[in-house]
Design a protein that fits this description.
Shape of chain B: elongated
Radius of gyration of chain A: 18 Å
Order of helices and strands of chain A: EEEHEEHEHHHHHEHEHEEHHH
Structural class of chain A: alpha/beta
Number of helices of chain B: 9
CATH topology of one domain in chain A: Rossmann fold
Structural class of chain B: mainly alpha
Distance between the termini of chain B: 52 Å
Number of helices of chain A: 12
Strand order of the largest sheet of chain A: 6-7-8-3-9-10
CATH superfamily of one domain in chain A: P-loop containing nucleotide triphosphate hydrolases
Shape of chain A: globular
Oligomer: heterodimer
Strand content of chain B: under 5%
Helix content of chain A: 40-55%
Helix content of chain B: over 70%
Largest sheet of chain B: none
CATH class of one domain in chain A: Alpha Beta
Strand content of chain A: 15-25%
Order of helices and strands of chain B: HHHHHHHHH
Largest sheet of chain A: 6 strands, mixed
Chain lengths: 259, 262
């Protein structure tokens, strides 16, 4: 379980989050939406313990991660898989080395064992291991890179929590669809809590069960799709307004039509 | 008033950066101890930094030694003191030229590389990804480079010294017409504890200067590719100036401490 309690956070003098509170239960898929620069990615960094809030608590399984020592944070992070924006693959390592990175670093498994697991994982995320295992990340398309990053996060820590930072940004519709399907498949496959950060409402609907809208660092909405439809908060309406026209007519994005 | 305020702001920023660099350096030193030890990364860096800088050091040593010997041979001839060329070259190269030139060359080549690499990793979230995998980026990225520099800068300096003295030898023989025996006897005469101690202490300290500044600049770079470029330039400039300043203070302090051995 993840819970943010009255979190205030700023980068130097620039306030990012103000009194942000919400929780994500076990096996729940929550999407954090909001305009660019509203503090969505910062929430993931706080959950991962990469940043500490100036006020409030970030509680992971009953422990406030912001008060823990770095060594304990490292242990906590083993429960969390993170897919960074653009994948953040290690560009000097091959795809195989990237996916097996955690196992190479933290376990005494043989090369053959790790290789076998890497092959399996690449298959799970829908990639042909034989074709890409020895290539460098720069030789992959955006969608493939994102899937390799998901594979790396999964193989790394066997996570109880998965965090995705803008997983479909910059991808063509087909690749975005593949990545979203993978996120759903993974969520249904394992009892993990999932948090997806995005500013694209169509992706949000495809990936999540519950929605949190952050506007200017504040939680402006927290609820289900039905609640979001009924939401009268002017900030939330203003954020959703542009999507009405841009996605109207796309049957799959039914919700947008109904807005 | 605005000039005073600007100076005040600059001084505050300078003091803040100095403080941050100090704490970062302490973290790097602390990370030297305790597991895990990244032996493969360290050996890889030794190859990249040490072997990769060799051609630069050889070229620097040979031309600096020859140029310096050429200039001195003319001056010494005026006083009929050409026979002292080997002696002066040994002192100048081992105590000053060798360590400073090797330090500056390594700073120019390696500090830029280290800052750019770490900065690029930071701007593409690779450092955060390391943290997410439970890896301390300072231990994994900075420490292997520090160990490498501490070992390789003195080694490269010794090579630079040897090549520079050899370069000067050819000038001594063919231009100054000093006999080979006399030149080497003079060089050997100045290969004493005090000179060798200073000649090795300097690159040892320079290696920390290069590692601390270049890694700090990489880890604190911000502003995307432009920011990485700026950090890289700053890294080379600050490292080079620091080497010259530190060189002066080592010479000043150590000379007074080991005067009896010189």
């Amino acid at each position: 379980m993840i819970e943010l309690r009255n979190v205030d956070f700023s980068y130097e003098d620039k306030p990012v989050l103000h009194d942000a509170s919400f929780r994500v239960d076990q096996s729940e898929a929550v999407v954090i939406m909001g305009p660019s620069g509203s503090g969505k990615s910062t929430i993931l960094r706080l959950i991962l313990g990469l940043e500490d809030p100036q006020q409030g608590q970030v509680i992971i399984d009953g422990q406030d991660i912001s008060t823990l020592k770095e060594k304990t944070k490292r242990y906590m992070r083993k429960k969390i898989g993170m897919v960074f924006q653009d994948g953040a693959l290690f560009d000097s390592l091959t795809v195989g080395e990237n996916v097996g990175y955690y196992l190479f670093e933290h376990t005494k498994l043989s090369f053959e064992d790790i290789s076998h697991r890497v092959y399996q994982m690449l298959g799970f995320v829908g990639l042909n291991a034989d074709e890409i295992i020895d290539t460098l990340p720069e030789q992959l398309s955006g969608g493939m890179r994102r899937r390799v990053a998901i594979g790396r996060a999964l193989l790394s820590t066997d996570p109880k929590i998965m965090l995705y930072d803008e997983p479909t940004t910059g991808l063509d519709p087909e690749s975005a669809e593949n990545v979203l399907n993978l996120i759903r498949k993974l969520h249904e496959h394992k009892p993990i809590s999932t948090i997806v950060v995005t500013h694209q409402i169509a992706d949000a609907i495809a990936a999540g069960d519950r929605f949190v809208v952050i506007v200017a660092g504040e939680v402006a909405f927290d609820g289900t799709l039905d609640d979001l439809r009924e939401c009268t908060d002017s900030r939330v309406r203003a954020f959703l307004a542009p999507f009405r026209s841009s996605f109207a007519g796309v049957a799959k994005r039914r919700f947008v039509d109904e807005l | 008033m605005s000039i005073l305020r600007a100076i005040n702001n600059w001084l505050k920023h300078f003091a803040y950066e100095l403080q941050q660099l100090f704490f970062f350096s302490l973290r790097m030193l602390a990370a030297l101890f305790g597991r895990p030890f990244y032996v493969t990364e360290t050996l890889e860096q030794m190859y990249l930094i040490g072997v990769g800088s060799l051609y630069l050091i050889v070229l620097t040593g040979i031309f600096a030694g020859q140029g310096f010997a050429l200039a001195l041979s003319v001056e010494l001839s005026d006083f009929g003191a050409r026979t002292y060329l080997g002696r002066i070259m040994a002192i100048a190269i081992i105590r000053e030229l060798g360590p400073t030139l090797a330090g500056l060359m390594v700073a120019a080549r390696v500090a830029a590389g280290i800052t750019a690499e770490i900065g690029a990793m930071k701007s593409s979230n690779q450092l955060d990804a390391l943290v997410a995998f439970g890896i301390d980026p300072i231990k994994k990225i900075a420490v292997p480079r520090l160990i490498t520099l501490v070992i390789m800068v003195p080694v490269l300096t010794i090579i630079c010294d040897a090549i520079a003295i050899l370069g000067a030898y050819f000038v001594a023989i063919f231009v100054a017409h000093v006999t080979s025996t006399l030149y080497w006897a003079n060089v050997r005469d100045r290969l004493i504890f005090g000179n060798i101690f200073i000649g090795l202490l300097k690159p040892f300290i320079f290696s920390f200067v290069i590692a601390f500044i270049s890694c700090y600049k990489g880890f604190t770079s911000k502003g995307g590719t432009k920011g990485v470029g700026r950090a890289t330039t700053d890294s080379v400039v600050i490292t080079s100036i620091s080497i010259l300043i530190v060189n002066f203070f080592i010479t000043k302090v150590v000379f007074s401490l080991i005067k009896g051995y010189l």
